[in-house]
Write the structure tokens for this entry.
Amino acid sequence: MGHRARTAANLSVDESLVSQARELKINISRGVKEGIANAIKAERERLWRIENAEAIRLENEYVEKHGLPLAKYRQF
């Protein structure tokens, strides 16, 4: 795997969280990275739902009126 470019970031982190992470031998840098990645993923999903709300609503309306397409082929 190639190296990803990194940038230094000054962060203020709750002292209790840092203390608990150290006690549990959690890599703080990795935890911050994973936390930010999870926040990005959640926000992208939230924005996607907003951007696609009308299409989702229309699809749900169709299913309510007509049932699931290809339902006769379901095996469950």
